[in-house]
Amino acid sequence: MPIVNRISAYHDDMREWRRDIHKHPELAYNEHRTASKVAELLRTFGVDEIVEGIGGTGLVGVIRNGEGRSIGLRADMDALPITEDTGVPYSSVNEGVMHACGHDGHTTMLLGAAKYLAETKNFSGTVVLIFQPAEEGYAGARAMMDDGLFDRFPVDEIYGVHNMPGVAQGEITVSPGPVMAAADSFLVTVKGSGGHGAMPHLAIDPVVAAATMVSSIQSLVSRAANPHDTLVISVTKINGGDAFNVIPDAVTFGGTVRYFDQDLGKKNLERMTKMIEGVAAGHGVTVEIKYDRGYPPTSNHEQQAGFARDIAVDVTGIKAKRQPQVMGSEDFSFYLQDKPGAYAWIGNGDNSESAQLHNPHYNFNDEILPVGASFFVRLAETALTKNAI
After folding, report:
1. Is the pLDDT of residue 103 over 80?
2. Is there a single domain that holds both residue 31 and residue 130?
């Protein structure tokens, strides 16, 4: 693979950094050791400015080389509440917490790029290195932005990369448009009037009402949404009742809604609300609907996606393929709502080589560390040397 030779020489160091981070995983907004390690390494690299504590446990490193444009490069640092079962000698020492999504590798790839860029400065302008906390459901990107990330460290464009099991080792794919879905959540409380299970006519049964609601909202996918659009409504939890012979006063159910198109998401919420309220009226129950708009769709900007695709081909020597869309979500989406940029996949190995993300057997593939670091470097050098975008 035609990776940067100098970065290839860092491979052993990068492997050591990655495995140390892997061994000491930390959950959202608790990435204190990880952030400290990153900051210390950036200092040894000679990064011009390091600011810690942005958006909680996030930090930013800045490498400057004269006047010019500015590019942001981002990596996430947090782990997941999963008990590791990889059996590797550097397994998590923090019980019930592991790097099951490869953020240890993402952080290390950006560290490798930072070392190279700080040493060579083969660009004109500013590189902003964004080490972000709390991607896993806690909107660390939003927290950093709310803490003035782009006001304090302006960027003209921003890029990130995520490892992808099932994609060939080291292959990088990036395409314009939505590549990851929005992730909304809902919780519905259905209130009736409890009673004896043998005398349902004397009660107002929230169980039957809730069951009808759960079944009915599935028709929003099959009948209300355009078949060419992508919409997922998954009810993932139902709670109500404690005894086999008692009709409860209330039932709750909740789940997630996924989509790529923001307008579809808005229309679906309107339809979902009307349907649930209609079923409630028919059953004589009352409902309370709590709907949380979570991460928006991650949608790559066309020009920046094309630029990143060209860089990927240059780094890997692999012909560009279309980036597959996934229904998972990513808070890099908040950056892309504010700045032009793109989010790429880098292959962690096919399914015989890599467990899936968020799996206790998953492990980041150390062989792709120099590839990802080289991708970050070439993005920065090309964008800031040629002022290409």
Report:
1. yes
2. yes
Burial of 195 (0-12, 13-18, 19+ CB in 10 A): middle
176 and 97: one domain? yes
Helix axis angle, 302-316 to 369-386, nearest 10°:
130
Q: Give CA–CA dist 160/171, Å, rounded.
A: 15
What letter represents residue 230's amino acid?
Answer: T
Tell me how far apart the alpha carbons of residues 252 and 380 are, in angstroms, rounded to a whole number: 49
One DSSP character per residue, 102-170 reads SHHHHHHHHHHHHHHHHHH--SSEEEEEEEE--TTTS-HHHHHHHTTHHHHS--SEEEEEEEEETB-TT
Give residue for tokens 């930090």: 59
pLDDT of the residue at 384:
97
Strands 286-295 and 182-191, by their bridges, are antiparallel
Please tell me the total count of domains within the chain. Answer: 2
Partners of 295 in beta bridges: 183
Mean pLDDT taken over the chain: 96
Q: CATH number for the domain including 268? A: 3.30.70.360
- Domain extent for 324: 5-180+297-386
CA pair distance 233, 220, nearest whole angstrom? 8
Using CA atoms, how far apart are residues 312 and 305, in angstroms rounded to an integer? Answer: 10
Let me know: does 110 contact 376? Beta carbons within 8 Å.
yes
Tens of pLDDT along 297-352? Answer: 999 999 999 999 999 999 999 988 899 899 999 999 999 999 999 999 999 998 77
pLDDT at residue 389 greater than cutoff 50: no
Instruction: Determine if the pTM surpasses 0.90.
Output: yes
| Shared-domain flag, residues 190 and 263 | yes
What are the angstrom distances between the C-alpha of 205 and each of 35, 57, 187, 194, 236? 52, 47, 19, 7, 21
Residue 357, pLDDT above cutoff 70: yes
Assess contact for 214 and 238: CB atoms under 8 A: yes
Q: Which two tokens stand for residue 322?
A: 């279309």
- 166 close to 351: Cβ distance less than 8 angstroms: yes
